[in-house]
Amino acid sequence: MNKIKLTVMGLVLILLLGSAKPISFLNDTNTIIINQIQIEILGNSTVGKYTCSNTLAYRDTIFLNSAFKNSLKSEIIMDDFDCGNRIMNKDMKTTIKVSKFPKSTVSITNIKSFNGNYKCNMSFKITDKTLTYSNLILKNNQQSLDGVVAVNFSDIGLEPPTKMGGMIKVKDEFVIHFILYKQ
């Protein structure tokens, strides 16, 4: 009779422990796992809008409310941006001087919860300039965290491209939209 009770208790214990979550993930509202980054450059010209994008395989974990790991840093291969056609790809790569500056860096630090979204600091190194943003909002969507910053070509020491003797002009201001895809 005691063997049956011990066996039943052992089975119950195995079932209970087998369905338990590991202690480190009990409060996973403080953990965000990123598995991909997409960066889009959105702008306007005299002939319409343009979009250039680059998707990076990237895996990292953010621990909110922790001094342990509350940041992301990634290198961006500038030659991997795609603007939708060969001519625009070439113009974009010439404009941002890919041969001289083949990589950029994005760093996101001090990520904190903020009204259902997140607030962070971001620095973005493009060409030989570093742009910094404080209290940048990362919109919390079901599958991603999204952030947007407005930049001028002149902020990074570049001239907006022109074509056909100046008949086609790219506007100085463009937007960098970055998407951190969650696992």
How many strand units?
9
- Please estimate the helix content: 10-25%
Oligomerization category of the chains in this entry: single chain
Q: Unreliable stretches, pLDDT < 50, 5 or more residues?
A: 19-27
Shape summary: elongated
Output mean pLDDT: 85
Main beta sheet, described?
A: 9 strands, antiparallel
The run of helices and strands is HEEEHEEEEEE
Structural class determined from secondary elements:
mainly beta
Describe the structure.
Strands 1, 2, 3, 4, 5, 6, 7, 8 and 9 form a 9-stranded antiparallel β-sheet that branches. The chain is mostly beta strands and 183 residues long. Helices cover 15% and strands 54% of the residues.
In short:
With 183 residues, this protein is mainly beta.
Describe the structure using short key phrases:
15% helix; elongated; 2 helices; 183 residues; 54% strand; nine-stranded antiparallel β-sheet; mainly beta
Q: Topology of this structure?
A:
Elements: H1 2-18, E1 31-45, E2 48-63, E3 71-77, H2 86-95, E4 103-114, E5 117-126, E6 129-140, E7 144-152, E8 162-163, E9 168-182
Antiparallel strand pairs: 1-2, 1-9, 3-4, 4-5, 5-6, 6-7, 7-9, 8-9
